[in-house]
Structures are given as C-alpha cells and as structure tokens.
C-alpha cells in the first residue's frame, strides 16, 4: 500500500516537475548564471587588486615602510628662490644677489630637554663666533613659531664647515644656502631701490607662504614690487632617521626665480645730478637737498636724488646697532626721502600754475600790467616784493617773479578796483587739478599729500578765520601751503606737455623667468587741464625767466630751457635760512626732460644754488660728447 502511494506520488509529481523545468525554471536559471558570472569577475578583480597592493607595500615599498617603522621620516627642506634683479633703463644692474650661508634652527629636530639645548648653545659658542645667550634665546623662541628660524646670517665658509661637521652634537642646527642683496652704487640709489632684510615675526604673521628664514623688501622698489621680485620657493624631500641624519634623497621641486624689474631711472643722469648738487651744498651751507628728473610726456622718472643719502648695503648685510644709531641720530636724517616725503612751502614755483588759473577764470588778460613798487599795503600790514619790478604783464611777472602782481591778481587790491581777484577757493580748485594737496600715486611707499589750505582748513586746524593776507601768502607759495618736490615737478610738467597730468612712474617694465613682459604704460590722471592758448602764456613766461629773468645763467646753453625760480622762507620771522627752488624743462618747444631742484635750509646770503645744478644737468644731458660711452 505504501509503495503504491509512493509510486502514485511520483507519478503525480513528475509531470509537474517536468513542466516546471521546461518552462519558467529554465529562464530563472539562465538569469542567475549571468549574475553569478558578474560577481565572480568582480571578486577576481578585487582579489587581484589586493594582491597587487600587498605586493607593492611589502616588496616595492617594503624598505620605505620598514624605515618609517624604525623611526625614520620624510623631511621637506625648502629650496630658497633667487630674488629678481633690478636694472636701470640702460640695463645696468642696480641690485643683484650674492651667495650667502645662514645658520638655521629646525624646531622638530631640537632636543626637548633644557640641558641638551644649553649644551648645543655652549658648543656653538665655543666652536664659532655665535654668542651663547643669543643662541639659547633663539632656540627656545623656535618653540613658539614651530618654524625654522635664522640663527645667524652671512657666516664664513670656515664656520659653515665647522657647524656641518658637528653633526648630532648640535641636533636641530643646520646650514642653509641663500643669497644676500648687493647694491651697485648703493648710496646713489638707496632712496629709490630701498633695501631688503630678514622678515620679522610681525611681518611673517601677516604674510602668506613666507618662511621665518625669508628676506623681504623693507623700503623703496624692493618693498613696492615685493610680489614680483620674491619668486617661489621649491623643496627637497629627504628620508632622515630618528637622529635627523640623511638616509636618502627622495625628490626635488625646483625653486622659481623672481622677476627682473627694469626702471626708468638713468643711472648716469643720477650721478651727474648728485655730483652737481654736492658742489652747491657746500656753498649753500647745508647738506639737505633733492632733485628729480622726469619725462614730461609720459611721467617716467629719470632720476630721483635725496641728500644726504645712506648705503643700503648696510641693511642688506645686517646693520650693526652702532651704524643704525648713527643714521637715526643724524640731524640731517639721511634715511628720509625728501623727494616724496618732504613737504615744503613751494615758493614762487606756484606762479605759472596760478597764472593759468587767473586766465581760465578771466580775472585779467595776460597783457594787463600791474605795478610793483616793492610791496603792497593792506590796512596796517605790508606785503613786500623781493625787489621793485615796475609795471609787469603776466609773462614778465612769471619771468621776474613779481610778488605784487600775484598778490593783486589772486587776492585783489583797492588800487585795482577792476580786479576782483581769484580768491582762495578758486585758487585751491585749480591747484588741486595740477596735483597740489594730494599724492601723485608714484610707485613708492611713503609719499605725503602736502597741504593746500582754504578757509575751512584754517578754521579746523588753527581755529582762526581766513584773512586777505592768507590769500596773498598763498599766491606766492608761502603761508600754510606745503608740497613735495615731486608735486611741484609734476605740476610744471603739465605746462611743459600742453595740459596733461601724468602719474609719475619709476618702473618701466617687469620680465619674469619665462621672459613674459609686463610693461607699464603712461597713466593720465587728468587731461586738458587748461586751454592751449593759456598754457602758451605760462610757457612764454617761463622761457622769459631764462632769457631775461631770474635764471639767465641758462640762456647760453645750446638747448632752449624754460624755468621758474622760487625762494621760500620758513620758521620764525627773521630767520636767515630759506628753501631754494628751481623747476624747469627742455627743450622749450619739444620737452624731453623736466627737472626740479630744491636745496633745503640754505643760507639766504648767496644767490640761487639750484639754477647751477640745472645748468650742469642740461649741459650734460644735451651734450652727447660729455656722456659716458656706456650711456
């Protein structure tokens, strides 16, 4: 019975199984087979990858990781980038790099125990010229920064070998190859080029991608164009053991040299100006002066002199305390750039600009004559002229520098009821258009704006009302007016070029290590400041100053010059010291060069000390046979 049932079940089940296997189950099996093959392939690839990785880590990189496990590590040592060089307009190098070796502290390799650090400082002080106390202080200071520090710069080759030979006795102390700046004729160009020096902690905290062992521009072109000059550091990857000793070199990332900077400065012209100025300073009983030469058609600065000067190589090498104290205690302030940071009463150099303001406002015609009898009286006050000029029109008033003419035309006077006078507000309006009372924008830090006063200024600064006498004083560049020599030069350059105010520019172009050039084109700050007709009147007045005025010394030159003298009193009344000015340009019809010379705090017992400097400069500049052969 049981067999029958069993057989019966089989008989019943077989057709069902056969049917199932022949239809739906056949499809499922085929689908499962595809997934199985896919998973099998993935598994094989994964196992192959893992096996390859194990082989790479154990066989190929086995030594590397064994060294790490044994206390070895990878160290990245910077390769210091060479700084870009600085050249004058003729390609003469003014700032270059010279090899230098420094002693540096590497914090991660220093022992942590004080006794061991003291021993390192002791060994260095005994074996080299490094001082024990200073060394120990800097070693401990490195804990605060966690960055490499300079322990000593510009060490001798002998000391470098000694320190390198000390090995683990001075763990954490190393020699780094760098470069120092060397400035050609540094004392002649220091106020332009400036200098670079070791970065200070305060500077480092505000800079990105700088090391505490880096050098950075501090003044002049060196700091203004720091980003172009500095380049980019590279690095060397090395394997070192637990004692900081080199196991093997792994790789190098090369450093990228900084860009070379080319100036508009003519170094030969700079020398001529300095030589001539120094001769005049002895005669003028002073040591302080400045002179600037500019191309009035572009704003390019051709020379910039500030005396006394200083040797910027002192700072590049690491200036001694005694040398620095000597500079800052010098009463003549040799570190001070008088060309852009000195603000002085400009004296009569303002008169050609004021003449244009008078003409633009139609106060009087250029042919209107005003009489100077040696001064003018207003109430109980007397405003003197430097001499009796008689009747002068505008051109002659500029040429002979008649104060009474400009008192009257700018402020008015009861003797000339038909002359309203320009007034201080309009005077300021026009003077500002020529650049007075604001920075020129030259590519140097440290420029000051000077002052061009008005009624509101005096009320705010001195708490006094504005008087007619203040307008008179302003009309001759005295009173509360101050201007930099660069502002004075730039204002007269507008007259020389026919009405364009340019931004003064020291750098001509920059060339990077790939020879890509960045050229600085002339920048116009203001155009068409005055009409060509009115500008021509001012030009003719300045030309008459040479032919028949206050600067006739220049009339025998082969080139025609136009100019304006100025003498500015300062300090207490009765002071026998003055600032002597002369601003000019040449050739008269097609100017190539504009020049300002200012001798500060000279005795008033001599005639101008500035016109002779201009004479020497123009004689050299336009006398090709007198220029050096490499010019």
Could you please describe the fold and organization of this structure?
- The chain has 631 residues and is of the alpha+beta class.
- The chain folds into three domains: 2-60; 75-263, Alpha-Beta Complex (Penicillin-binding protein 2a (Domain 2)), CATH 3.90.1310.10; 267-309 and 343-511 and 518-624, DD-peptidase/beta-lactamase superfamily (Beta-lactamase, 3-Layer(aba) Sandwich).
- Helix content is 40%, strand content 21%.
- It contains 23 helices and 23 strands.
- The strands form seven sheets. Strands 2, 3, 4, 5, 10, 18 and 19 form a seven-stranded mixed beta sheet that branches.
- A hairpin with a 7-residue loop joins strand 21 (562-569) and strand 22 (577-586).
- Mean pLDDT is 87; it is low at 1-26.
Keywords:
single chain; 631 residues; alpha+beta; Penicillin-binding protein 2a (Domain 2); Beta-lactamase; seven-stranded mixed beta sheet; five-stranded antiparallel beta sheet; elongated; disordered N terminus
Short structural description:
This protein is 40% helix and 21% strand. The protein is an alpha+beta fold and 631 residues long. The strands form 7 sheets. Strands 2, 3, 4, 5, 10, 18 and 19 form a 7-stranded mixed sheet that branches. Strands 12-11-23-22-21 form a 5-stranded antiparallel sheet, with helices on both faces. It has a 3-stranded antiparallel sheet with strand order 1-8-9, with no helix packed on it.
